[in-house]
Inverse folding.
């Protein structure tokens, strides 16, 4: 992708947190049950709010309808952040925001991460994915509406195809944080993801938090590669950080 658009000069910082592995010392609070209609209903106990988030998976419908390890890792980070923000690797993301962060989730899949973010942070979260995935997002958002509302949050949902200007324009860019987990499992997804972020970052300062269980070095390299495109101003700077529960790499624009 060529980043020679004059708007590139207005692009502001974002951070990309890539989770390499889950903390295996923590008991798994997630349990799964299957009903007669074949969907998987997973009960997820969130310690910080003492509530259960119920997520419906539809494995027969494809990968977007299933939970993946990086999602549960990011949920654990959100849960632990509410319990003890001073030791949370997410503290650098949220401490600079002096109001409940407006959050957009890309490639929401089941919506698990976004729903937990809304509940644990007490904020508004917009879940997005391809149009055919949205009905299941709607189901899960409505199934957990009471839990989210009791903790001061709200969840909405909308279709968003990466790299489509019209879709990004419809969603808008009035967000403080963009989150994603396990969304670049194919190489061809990098370019539309980065283009979507570029469109959202024009004239804005947005933090991007992405959890990924594998190929952390490859993912960071792709962001560095895009930073090397011919443009009047680099889009990304690279930094790294670690925590007890995960190894993290950060990508920032200047």
């Amino acid at each position: 992708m060529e980043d020679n658009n004059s708007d590139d000069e207005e692009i502001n910082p974002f951070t990309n947190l890539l989770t390499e592995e889950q903390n295996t010392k923590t008991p798994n609070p997630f349990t799964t049950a299957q009903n007669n209609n074949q969907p998987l209903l997973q009960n997820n106990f969130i310690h910080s709010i003492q509530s259960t988030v119920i997520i419906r998976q539809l494995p027969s419908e494809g990968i977007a309808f299933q939970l993946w390890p990086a999602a549960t890792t990011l949920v654990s980070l959100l849960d632990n952040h509410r319990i003890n923000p001073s030791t949370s690797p997410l503290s650098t993301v949220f401490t600079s925001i002096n109001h409940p962060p407006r959050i957009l989730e890309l490639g929401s899949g089941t919506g698990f991460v976004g729903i937990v973010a809304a509940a644990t942070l007490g904020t508004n979260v917009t879940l997005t994915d391809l149009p055919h995935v949205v009905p299941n997002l709607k189901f899960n958002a409505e199934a957990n509406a009471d839990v989210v509302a009791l903790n001061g949050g709200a969840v909405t949902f909308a279709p968003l195809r990466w790299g489509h200007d019209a879709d990004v324009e419809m969603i808008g860019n009035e967000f403080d944080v963009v989150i994603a987990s396990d969304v670049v499992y194919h190489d061809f997804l990098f370019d539309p993801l980065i283009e979507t972020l570029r469109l959202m970052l024009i004239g804005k300062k947005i933090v991007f938090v992405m959890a990924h269980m594998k190929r952390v070095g490859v993912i960071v390299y792709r962001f560095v590669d895009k930073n090397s495109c011919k443009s009047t101003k680099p889009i990304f700077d690279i930094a790294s950080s670690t925590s007890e529960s995960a190894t993290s790499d950060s990508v920032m624009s200047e």
In short: The beta strands are 30-34, 40-46, 51-57, 103-105, 124-129, 154-159, 177-181, 207-211, 237-242, 247-252. The mean pLDDT is 77. Residues 6-26+63-252 form a domain with the Rossmann fold fold (CATH 3.40.50.150).
